[in-house]
Amino acid sequence: MSDRLPSIFQIIRTDYLAITLAVVPPALWLLFGVVYILPALLNGQAVDINGFLILILLAVTLYCWLALAWRVSNIRSVFAAGIHVQGIITGIWFFRNRGQMCFSYTYLGALHDAKMTLVKNLRTCHLQEGATLGLLVDPNNPDRAFLQDLFI
Q1: I need a surface site. Which of 33, 57, 87, 147 has the fewest CB within 10 A?
Q2: C-beta of residue 92 within 8 angstroms of C-beta of residue 133
Q3: Is 149 strand, coil or helix?
Q4: pLDDT tens-digit map of 58-71
Q5: How many CB atoms sit inside 10 A of residue 60's CB?
Q6: What is the pTM of this model?
Q7: Which has the closest alpha carbon to 101: 83, 72, 125?
Q8: Can you tell me the distance from the alpha carbon of 72 to that of 78, in angstroms, rounded to the nearest whole number?
Q9: Residues 101 and 147 sit within 8 Å (Cβ to Cβ)
Q10: Do residues 101 and 91 touch, judged by C-beta distance below 8 A?
Q11: How far apart are the C-alpha atoms of 83 and 22, rounded to whole Å?
Q12: Helix (H) / strand (E) containing 98
């Protein structure tokens, strides 16, 4: 159990799925504005907006932000009720702005292997294979664990 819960910002800057879910809706709305609204405004024409496209954008926005809320809730629940264990990084790689860390740990006498998809940033770039790390393990699903230091 952790004393502190990670903020939404801390989760988004570390977890690749979270940042993807947070960034896709604004990017789509910006693209919509550049492709449909900006040319009409620059040409002095009336803006002709497709209602179906707006509904699709609203649905994608709602889906992404609900999925982000679900992801943040899941991560925070592990921090609220998780069990501290020590683990070892068994593999780590980065490609462009994302990466994956594989690690193993022992929980209740059983060896578990897990992985996390990460955002490449100053904190994650310093992780090295073979390093020992503090993890929080979900007691209801011991195969799910998060590296505590990355989120706090």
Answers
A1: 33
A2: no
A3: helix
A4: 999 999 999 999 99
A5: 14
A6: 0.83
A7: 125
A8: 10
A9: yes
A10: yes
A11: 28
A12: strand 98-107
